[in-house]
């Protein structure tokens, strides 16, 4: 079993039974030790196991051999910044990743999302907001893991040349693998489930992030652009996801 799941905790189910479950591990990467200490304390109080790193190079070396359930990255760090670390991690896995940064310019947010981050939160930030975003991402990842382990019934969605295998978190176009993050997979699934039906950005936010989570519309636009780019790496002519300006997106029927 991976280090990310070595420790256990217990909780009471609705029927009164006691169930053993594993602690989820979160990596915090930030050169500000005060932020690391504060966020670590908050997350540990919420029941998470936390590993902290003060630079990207140190984090990459450790996370390559000791995976975690989710990573929270700062952008401005010594030796290796958050953008490069994100790219290195994305080359290895679809690990849920949240950017936590003082760089609040729109171009930085869009760049982070286009490189594959699942979310972007600017400093100063609400720790409660960070916890809710973490919970939302981890819930989605838990479902994928459960299905892959056979603990839940996975489903296969086929739309012409598109195949989405939920149980294995696998996306294919014309038989070629398209590596999607958790957020990207859920967006494609929401669109492809009802071809021809327009999905507003709010509906896509609910599908990818869950209810009661605020995400800027530009976040969805950035994810969609990255999804298109990934599919076009497999097929230059991919054009199934249409933009309806001022309305939202739809998956074009083949």
Automatic annotation (TrEMBL):
The transmembrane residues are: none
Record InterPro entries: CheY-like_superfamily (IPR011006), OmpR/PhoB-type_DNA-bd (IPR001867), Sig_transdc_resp-reg_C-effctor (IPR016032), Sig_transdc_resp-reg_receiver (IPR001789), WalR-like (IPR039420), WH-like_DNA-bd_sf (IPR036388)
Q: Return the protein name.
A: Response regulator
Keyword Ribosomal protein (UniProt): no
The residues that make up the annotated DNA-binding region are 154-253
Q: Which residues carry this modification: 4-aspartylphosphate?
A: 74
Q: Which UniProt keywords apply?
A: DNA-binding, Phosphoprotein, Transcription, Transcription regulation, Two-component regulatory system
SUPFAM superfamilies in UniProt: C-terminal effector domain of the bipartite response regulators, CheY-like
The residues covered by the Response regulatory domain are: 25-138
